Amino acid sequence: MRLASAKHCEAALEAAGILTRQNKLKDALAELDTVDVAKLSHGYWSGSLLAARGSVLAKLGKAADAAAQYRAALRQHPLYPAQKTVYEKALKELQVRDGRR
């Protein structure tokens, strides 16, 4: 079942964070995928989930996919200024690592 409540978003993000720290990256992605981002009504949660996917994908060496997730996160509304700053920085770092500026 794909979930879309704030409580489930928070739980998925926390579980994915734990799995990422354990280097269980595919499991972390699977956990994030339990939430249907398209059904979320607030940019905070959809942006957070998309950025978390971007972070995990970057750790998997999938820079192009990670960048796409960060770009999608930046298109969410409303997005807090702090989120925007973090996502832009992560995207820039990916581009520098990947040889694009």
Describe how the helices and strands are arranged:
Blueprint: H1 6-21, H2 25-32, H3 43-59, H4 63-74, H5 81-97
Helix pairs in contact: 1-2, 1-3, 2-3, 3-4, 3-5, 4-5
Describe this structure in words.
The structure is a single chain. The protein has 101 residues and is mostly helical. The chain has a single domain, classed as Tetratricopeptide repeat domain (Serine Threonine Protein Phosphatase 5, Tetratricopeptide repeat), CATH 1.25.40.10. The protein has helices at residues 6-21, 25-32, 43-59, 63-74, 81-97. The radius of gyration is 13 Å and the shape is globular. 33% of the residues are buried.
In the CATH hierarchy, the architecture is Alpha Horseshoe
Total helix count?
5
Low-confidence stretches: none
Q: Kindly state the percentage of residues in helix.
A: 55-70%
The CATH C-level name is Mainly Alpha
Largest sheet: none
Distance between the termini: 40 Å
Q: Output the radius of gyration.
A: 13 Å
User: Please, what is the average pLDDT?
Assistant: 93
Please name the CATH topology: Serine Threonine Protein Phosphatase 5, Tetratricopeptide repeat
Question: How much β-strand is present in the residues?
Answer: under 5%
Kindly name the structural category.
mainly alpha
CATH homologous superfamily descriptor: Tetratricopeptide repeat domain
The topology string of helices and strands comes to: HHHHH
Oligomer: single chain
Overall geometric form? globular
* Domain count: 1
Q: Tally of extended strands?
A: 0
